[in-house]
Fold this sequence. Notes:
alpha/beta, binds magnesium ion, globular, six-stranded parallel sheet, 230 residues
Amino acid sequence: MKKSYKTLLFDLDDTLLDFAAAEDAALTNLFKELQIPLTEVMKETYKMFNQGLWRAHEKGEIGRDELVNTRFSIFFEHYGKNVDGAEYEQKYRNYLKEGAQLIEGALEVVERLSQQFDLYIVTNGVKITQQNRLKRSGLLPYFQHVFVSEEVGFQKPRIEFFNYVFSYIGITDLDSTIIIGDSLSSDIKGANVAGIDSCWFNPFEKENATDSVPTYQIKRITELYEILNK
Ligand SMILES: [Mg+2]
């Protein structure tokens, strides 16, 4: 049975904004600045280390500062080079905050849904980066508030993150709230933990090998119209 939703919580990266494109451009620019040729293998290696750190962060094993300030030192250590991780992170972040490539259909969907629902962003990340990317992409005006884990003090899928969001918005009826996101380990798991519905944005039709259970699954962001409108 379809519920009557009022509050839509949107994940940002790889749900509305194309993080892979932003990350790619930022890495390319960083390496250009460092005058180091960046190969596809190096890109994949960076992503592997970075994702490993994010997974550790989502499990609460390492803090956000440790994550961002060590990812480049860990990466370069792999290539036998000692660098100041925090300094490289700063350089990288300056490029990353320019990345505002939209997922196909995202701007139109958000604009149209904002006429009918209350929209919020719930994202794990760094506040200034996410704010800047939202602004540049044209998405920002359609959201009532942007919840960034750095500011909240907890990250998805932690129940504390969601409790903060619910209390800030003043949500008492969890049935009227749904989260839309691409990550099973943060968005859908978070929904399961918090007791709200969820829509898994799964454009590449990945298999769900986790114990997180989405209420809905979509391939294109425009499919939200069918789910949200009876
Ligand atoms: Mg995401």
